[in-house]
Amino acid sequence: MLERNGDVVCELRHVDKVYEGAVPTPALLDINLQVRRGEFLVVLGASGSGKTTLLNIIGLLDTPTSGQVWLAGRNAADLSEEERAALRSRYMGFVFQFHYLLPEFTVMENALLPCKIVGARMVEQNRNRVKELLVRVGLGDRLNYRPNQLSGGQQQRVAIVRALANNPELVLADEPTGNLDSKNGFAVFEMMRFMNRETGTAFVVVTHDERLAQEADRVVVLEDGRIVKDEIQRPAVTHEL
Amino acid sequence: MIDRFSFSVAIRHLLYYKGQTLLTMGVVAVSVTLIIFLGALIGGLQKRLISSVTGAIPHVVIRQPERKPIAVWEVATANGVLYLGERVKLQQQKRKIEDWQSWEARLPTFSDNIRAVSPVVEGQAFVNRNEKRKAVTVVGVFPEKHNGVVDIQSKLVQGRFFGLNGGEAVVGFKLADEFALKLGDKIRVVSAEGNVGNYTVAGIFDTGFSAVDSATVFIPLRDAQSLFGVGNAVTTIGLKLQRIFEAKDLAQQIALQVPYETRSWMEDNQQLLSGLRAQSQSSNLILVFTTIAAGFGIASIMITSVVTRLREIGILKAIGATNRQILQIFAIEGTLLAFFGAIAGAIQGVALSLALYSIRVQVSETGRTAEVFPFDLTPDLVIRAIVIAVLVGLAASWYPAWRAARVNAIEVIRGG
């Protein structure tokens, strides 16, 4: 189905997720969601509503209890561990609440890590692009700094460029502003919005901050593991970089 | 194949956390130093012990079997009548090898282990000079040949051993002191057979073996043949071997091929050999435990490293690093730590051994010195220590690396 619809980068069909335990805890219930190319989607929900679980399932870091996840025209259930790793490194980018940059690498090297994982050719192909992205997020003069020489907001910007390093179709961000004060948080959010427009990469941003949702193309609201609202606010950018 | 990404992460990590890296390398270095130091010391002590036993004797001796007199009742007679007489004078016959020249030529072809062959005429005699008299062992040799079996030339204090002429003798320094002998002095030697020889002292040696230095006289083979009345024969053939612990087997093998009796140094020194074996075993035990301790050192530091880097590992996995790449990061780190630690340890171990080896003390009044610590430092030992350390490093990082590869990305990231 995905092959026929080139505009969809990721699709969840009837996805359920139940955490097994003494008392099985349902985290997601019958989730149906298509993420379209270039779309900036914000997933809103209270803590415990299942939004991080949703992101992990899209990012192939977690598997659904039932239902299907389609990425790049393939059913995730059919992928080997190696193929899942390859999809994560080539097709997707990740931004987490904490930046998790490697302290022993410079800003430029950290941003290039996803390329390094794939191989030397990938590094050569993307070196200039990554440098350009770092310049655009205002870190052009800090390329050779170490992460601990940067402020929290600057580190998160490096993390965003890292997520975009392999020119992915989809960036998944889990509370990317959660660890920043509101001014810096908003700046980082704006940065992602800007990158989305510039690169045409789809973003799925999980947050509990409703102010940020106003900037999104589309807002999905989760409550107790169910989608209770799915609203398109403005058409997504469709151009290629 | 080594993954470039894993290699660069491993190298960066080692260089960034210098303290931890040096600490781990130190653990490896200390154990490699210990392995080399102990190995060389124990090896050297054993070598010294063995050479104290075998230094002045051939490793294998070939001689005519001893002929024992038989008892009266052992004599079988054809008709049951035994005639006894008292006029027969039994003369002790010298045990000798008449066809020594052909054996001398053939023996080296028996085994590549045979390094030197020396025909010897040996017997007991008295040295007389100015009313003084002393029982000595007179050894008649071809000096150049005999030196391959028992080194005398390099132990000379004065004079010469090689190129000994007829009528010349070389004596131990203790014997020389006892008789106040100088080069050029004359000694008179009377053999047990009653033959007399006069010799000029041409050399004085100090082998460090008391029995040899105080009671052995070397003379040319021909002189000894006439002194002991053995004609053209010799009494023994001595062999020097390359691999001395094969002496017993080789002696048995030669005994099957020559019509004489063979005896190796090992048969005369059973106790020493079992002592050496026990020492080797205990030293191996020390080395095994040292190696295990180093392995645990690396493993525990690597496990700590995995635990403190859980999030980093989680992120790398989340952005697409494969389990194999994560595994390799830690395996490479462990191996590099072990390798460079081992190199540092090897340098220390060699330096320490050489430094202690250079301490020498005088062990004889002739001025001969010997090392206090006898080290047997071989490239083989050093290479073995390094290889063992690297293998242990690889093995010790296996478990931490496996744990790292199994890290669940979302769990550690969520744990943030």
Task: Give a description of the structure.
The complex is a heterodimer of chains A (241) and B (416). Chain A is of the alpha/beta class and 241 residues long. Chain A has 2 domains: 138 residues, P-loop containing nucleotide triphosphate hydrolases (Rossmann fold, 3-Layer(aba) Sandwich); 68 residues, no CATH class. Chain A is built from 8 helices and 10 strands. In chain A, strands 6-7-8-3-9-10 form a 6-stranded mixed beta sheet, sandwiched between helices. In chain A, a hairpin with a 2-residue loop joins strand 9 and strand 10. The two termini of chain A are 26 Å apart. The N terminus of chain A is likely disordered. Chain B is α+β, with helices and mostly antiparallel strands. Chain B has 2 domains: 193 residues, no CATH class; 167 residues, no CATH class. Helices cover 50% and strands 18% of the residues of chain B. Chain B contains 14 helices and 12 strands. Chain B has a 6-stranded mixed barrel with strand order 2-3-8-5-7-6. Chain B has a two-stranded antiparallel ribbon with strand order 11-12. The longest helix of chain B is centred in the C-terminal third of the chain and has 39 residues. The model of chain B has no long low-confidence stretch (mean pLDDT 88). Chains A and B meet through helix 2 and helix 4 of A and helix 1, helix 11 and helix 14 of B.
% residues in beta strands of chain A: 25-35%
Number of strands of chain B: 12
CATH fold label of the largest domain in chain A:
Rossmann fold
Q: State the separation between the terminal residues of chain A, measured CA to CA.
A: 26 Å
- What coarse outline of chain A follows from CA principal-axis ratios? globular
Low-confidence parts of chain B, pLDDT < 50 over ≥5 residues? none
The Cα radius of gyration of chain B reads 33 Å
Give the strand content of chain B: 15-25%
Q: How confident is the prediction overall: mean pLDDT of chain B?
A: 88
Q: Give the integer mean of the pLDDT values of chain A.
A: 88
> How many separate domains make up the residues of chain A?
2
Quaternary state of the chains: heterodimer
Order of strands in the sheet with most strands of chain B: 2-3-8-5-7-6
Number of H/I helices of chain B:
14
| Approximate helicity band of chain B | 40-55%
For the largest beta-sheet of chain A, the strand count, sense and barrel status come to: 6 strands, mixed
CATH class value of the largest domain in chain A: Alpha Beta
Q: How many domains would you count in the coordinates of chain B?
A: 2
